[in-house]
Write a structure and sequence with these properties.
Rossmann fold, 438 residues, seven-stranded mixed sheet
Length: 438
Amino acid sequence: MANFFKASPKKAPIQQHITVNVSHLDQQGCGVAFQGKNPIFIEGALPNETVEVNVYEQKSKFAKAKLLRVISASAARVEVKCRHYFQCGGCNLQHMDYSQQLAYKQDKITQLFARQALNESLPWQSHLINDPWHYRRKARIGVQYNKRGAPIIGFRQRESSHLTEIKSCPVIVEAFGHIFAELKELLPRLSGKNAIGHVEIIAANEQVVVVRQLVKATAQDKKLWQHFADKNQWLVYFDDGNEVTPLTEDKTLFYALTDAIKIEFSVNNFIQVNHLVNKQMVEQALTWLALNDNDIVLDLFCGLGNFSLPIAEKVSRVVGIEGISVMVEKAQENALKNDIHNCQFYQADLNSDWQDQPWAKQKYTKVLLDPARAGAYQALTQLLAFNVNQILYVSCDPASLARDAKLLIDHGYKIEKIALMDMFAQTKHVETMLMFSL
């Protein structure tokens, strides 16, 4: 008997308007209410609020709902500064008082540690914070085109690949405050406009705009970009997916880390987005490590030398390890240009077996590590054999941090200090510094 395809009837969208009481925030910053035993996740809702919501997704164990109206507001609720806040996916805590954002982030770390059965009271130190507005010196601005061919310039919508058209952003540095209007005026005039995927902005000693464009810009397009650059005193670079080239001249880019140290970087290198919190972070690392002339320090995931170079000024020797070879070369150059000669840098995949590397056979008195979001579990399993008395861990993801902290604590380390570093104000993202000691 032949089987014929029969399309399943489309499910009608859920339109369930209900009133709920919000109990807490989840790890993503969503308000959590309950319908029976099942949680309902509500973007934009705060603990202790009564809210009216529309349930738009119903699963067997949870539901998602859109906030329609706040019936009884939390004392922590504040007016948002961004006109695009409820569409843009860039920030998700602007509706919460800043002091409560910090409290939420600290509690988020505490909860994740508790899930790892690390229930002892954490020795919290003062938060590292700066102005929670206009702090972001590096950002990627998306470019899409609508059916009429008009450009949409902005950031991704929440839970979507589509862009929210942005006219202003209160978290990017003020030097780029008008870039959305400038791009809106320029892009329709370009012949290769459909080839532009995104535009990245970087603020350092120069203000840089990197255009991701897979086809070569025409001579006329370059004239338009040059006018754009001259008008705003911005440098323009083109990224074709293989290399980055300047529109005109390739200037040296750097940021001042201390009074004496400048870190040079290329437009495709990683740098911390919050310049002033980064400086505080480095200063705190130097203080917590209590460095002296006899120390030999291992800096894992060292990048451009953000920690290595200021540490080198206070110790006998620093060895920095980084997985990306071009970053290693740049770190070596930064050491020489800052007249620092007691630093050595090596390339290694720290998530693989590296114990046979020559640098791994040396003795170290202290270790600093600053891994990516995935954490440093594989590196730490090998680092345990070093039996170093002090390990300073800088984390950009609290979940991987909690997992890695358990490994160290299970092998005899204890947490001496912990501090929140608010690199990404107005967002759910959490960065943390911990000092472990044997």
